[in-house]
């Protein structure tokens, strides 16, 4: 009986261990084995699976499996997943293991397929100065998890600081599953790298990436044709996180994913776990949402709750575009591409069609996809991190969202934000900033200006504004404008220019805490043009003169005056009606009283005496 009692006690203890995990009672079917695993085992004796754990007990799980039941692919001591090859007997054991949360079939990954940079105002962001440096991505390193990068491309001279390859099908460049060579034989990764960081040298038109002064770490997770496995992808993301301090990695961009789509967060996938872990380590992670045209869900790992998922828009207006998943009968700037996976958990939009960037052969190519959108976001994140290194990944995504351009999607009836690099950079530098200064109406010498003031504070602010027109005159706000937290207002101001010329217009905004920002632009004001004054003919003291009068970009009634210097001015006998941009030639004679040298002037003005211009010459009467 004593011997029997001991055995019984051990059995009870063993069962207790398997029925209580973290204080939680488990049911008989401990782990969730996804149906695709069983379906695949009907046709195959061995399947590639990903095992998600509910606690860090990898060793205890593996100790229950024989070498015939499980062959490891990726094993880690510091994460809640591993992968490998197993059979029906291995699945049965994993199913009853209390430390296994669920098991799913390892899915293949695929690549997700220069107008874009001006569209998101990246060129304006480069002109912003912080700490005496322009915002160009300096001191930022972006880990590109893709098909590799052609590091010999002229646009990447001195940029690729490290390379790594993970390809479980022995498809790394050396024929092994892991290598320090991430040569791109597909072209996709090189295209992505150019969008982020091409330096513009030796490249047609001086093409630059969004963060052209940033560095690159190339991580290859596919074979030569752009296919891989999700565990390879997850391991690539993990490697970026684990080596962030070695290579000063501050961001990760991923344009690889599976064909699965999720309408809610998919934090139970290996690559999603690693994307989330990377953001916890303060690495911003942008991920392409996928190109299947799904309007209710996005791909893996874009659906990771901490990653920033990115859909694609057009960067130009064109005709119909036929894609693998769908067709757009017409295309407009900022139109969401029909192939973009989207839904309630999509975070951002960025240009993704049609993008010209670097390619594997050392040249360039035009490629489209959410793959091309994600690196635009990563490049902007690099600009923002340079401007303000204290930003967290959630800070970056939040700022991009409230400074982006709203784009309504009729397919989902949702509004998403397309990134605006200039506004996002300003938002992380200033508590209050002005943007989008532009002329919205022009008539003769009159210009109507518009600009925006944005309160980047989490509390309301009283804002005053000033606009200097560049001709010595300005307007001020009569009363302070109250802006709520992250609220924006439009400001309009009208001004009449009395003289033609080029003027630098500057808009200012201040809060009661004296947080200010300015923005300038140069305009050309040509209310009336008088030119070409010359002496046409001379006979003794009689001179015949002529000059041109040109109306502005609107209809105008004008009169003219000639000042001969030695006598009474000559005026037009009646007003002259000019249509927009019309030019007329005026000529007349004047009799001088004596020979000499005279400074003569021709002048024209509108009937309201608001605008005028003049032209003068020196005339010699002999």
CATH C-level class of the largest domain is: Alpha Beta
Number of helical regions: 13
Helix content bin: 10-25%
Whole-angstrom Rg = 34 Å
Structural class: alpha+beta
- Overall mean confidence score, pLDDT: 88
Q: How would a crystallographer describe the biggest sheet?
A: 8 strands, mixed
- Unreliable runs: 1-28
Overview of this protein structure:
With 622 residues, the chain is an alpha+beta fold. The protein has four domains: 2-106, Alpha-Beta Plaits; 109-426, Peptidase S8/S53 domain (Rossmann fold); 430-525, Immunoglobulins (Immunoglobulin-like, Sandwich); 529-621, Immunoglobulin-like. It has 13 helices and 44 strands. The strands form 13 sheets. An eight-stranded mixed β-sheet has the order 13-12-14-11-16-19-21-24, with helices on both faces. A hairpin with a 4-residue loop joins strand 27 and strand 28 (414-418). The longest helix has 18 residues, at 2-19. The radius of gyration is 34 Å and the shape is elongated.
Task: Tell me the layout of helices and strands.
Layout: H1 2-19, E1 20-21, E2 24-25, E3 32-33, H2 35-41, E4 47-53, H3 58-62, E5 70-74, E6 81-86, H4 88-95, E7 100-105, E8 108-111, H5 116-119, H6 122-126, E9 129-130, E10 133-134, E11 141-146, E12 160-166, E13 178-179, H7 188-197, E14 215-220, E15 227-229, H8 230-242, H9 244-247, E16 249-254, E17 256-257, E18 261-262, H10 270-280, E19 284-288, E20 298-299, E21 308-314, E22 321-322, E23 327-328, E24 348-353, E25 355-358, E26 364-367, H11 370-387, H12 393-403, E27 405-409, E28 414-418, H13 421-429, E29 432-443, E30 446-455, E31 461-468, E32 474-476, E33 481-483, E34 488-496, E35 501-511, E36 516-525, E37 529-539, E38 542-550, E39 556-563, E40 570-571, E41 576-578, E42 583-591, E43 596-606, E44 612-621
Helix pairs in contact: 7-11, 8-10, 11-13, 12-13
């Amino acid at each position: 009986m004593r011997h029997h009692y001991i055995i019984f006690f051990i059995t009870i203890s063993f069962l207790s261990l398997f029925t209580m995990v973290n204080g939680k009672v488990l049911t008989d079917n401990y782990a969730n084995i996804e149906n695709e695993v069983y379906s695949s085992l009907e046709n195959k004796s061995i399947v590639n699976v990903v095992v998600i754990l509910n606690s860090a007990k990898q060793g205890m799980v593996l100790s229950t499996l024989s070498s015939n039941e499980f062959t490891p692919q990726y094993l880690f001591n510091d994460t809640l997943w591993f992968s490998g090859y197993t059979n029906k007997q291995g699945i049965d054991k994993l199913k009853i293991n209390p430390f296994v949360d669920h098991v799913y079939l390892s899915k293949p990954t695929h690549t997700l397929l220069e107008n874009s940079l001006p569209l998101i105002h990246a060129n304006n962001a480069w002109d912003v100065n912080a700490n005496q440096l322009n915002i160009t991505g300096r001191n930022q390193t972006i880990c590109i998890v893709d098909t590799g990068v052609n590091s010999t491309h002229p646009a990447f001279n001195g940029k690729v600081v490290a390379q790594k390859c993970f390809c479980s099908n022995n498809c790394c460049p050396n024929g092994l599953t892991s290598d320090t060579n991430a040569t791109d034989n597909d072209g996709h990764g090189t295209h992505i790298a150019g969008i982020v960081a091409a330096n513009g040298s030796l490249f047609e038109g001086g093409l630059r990436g969004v963060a052209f002064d940033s560095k690159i770490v190339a991580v290859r997770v596919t074979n030569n044709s752009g296919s891989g496995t999700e565990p390879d992808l997850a391991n690539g993301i993990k490697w970026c996180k684990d080596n962030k301090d070695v290579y000063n990695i501050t961001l990760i961009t991923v344009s690889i994913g599976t064909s699965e789509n999720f309408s809610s967060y998919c934090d139970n996938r290996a690559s999603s776990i690693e994307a989330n872990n990377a953001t916890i380590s303060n690495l911003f992670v942008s991920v392409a949402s996928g190109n299947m045209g799904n309007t209710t869900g996005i791909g893996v790992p874009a659906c990771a709750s901490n990653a920033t998922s990115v859909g694609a828009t057009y960067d130009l207006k064109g005709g119909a575009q036929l894609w693998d998943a769908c067709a757009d009968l017409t295309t407009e700037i900022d139109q969401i591409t029909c192939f973009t996976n989207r839904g309630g958990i999509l975070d951002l939009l960025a240009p993704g069609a049609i993008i010209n960037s670097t390619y594997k052969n050392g040249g360039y190519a035009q490629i489209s996809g959410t793959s091309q959108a994600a690196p635009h976001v990563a490049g902007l994140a690099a600009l923002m991190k340079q401007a303000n290194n204290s930003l967290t990944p959630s800070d970056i995504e939040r700022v991009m969202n409230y400074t982006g351009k709203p784009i309504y999607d009729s397919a989902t009836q949702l509004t998403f934000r397309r990134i605006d690099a200039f506004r996002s950079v300003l938002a992380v530098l200033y508590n209050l900033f002005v943007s989008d200064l532009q002329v919205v109406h022009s008539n003769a010498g009159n210009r109507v200006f518009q600009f925006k003031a944005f309160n980047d504070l989490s509390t309301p602010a009283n804002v005053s504004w000033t606009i200097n027109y560049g001709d010595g005159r300005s307007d001020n706000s009569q009363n302070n404008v109250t802006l709520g937290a992250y609220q924006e207002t439009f400001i309009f101001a009208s001004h009449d220019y009395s003289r033609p010329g080029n003027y630098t217009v500057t808009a200012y905004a201040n809060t009661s805490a004296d947080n200010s920002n300015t923005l300038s632009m140069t305009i050309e004001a040509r209310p009336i043009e008088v030119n070409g004054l010359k002496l046409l003919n001379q006979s003794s003291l009689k001179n015949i003169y002529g000059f041109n009068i040109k109306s502005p970009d609107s209809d105008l009634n004008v009169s003219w005056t000639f000042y001969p210097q030695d006598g009474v001015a000559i005026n037009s006998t009646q007003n002259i009606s000019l249509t927009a941009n019309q030019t007329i030639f005026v000529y007349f004679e004047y009799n001088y009283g004596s020979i000499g040298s005279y400074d003569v002037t021709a002048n024209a003005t509108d009937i309201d005496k608001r605008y005028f211009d003049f032209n003068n010459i020196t005339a010699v009467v002999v």
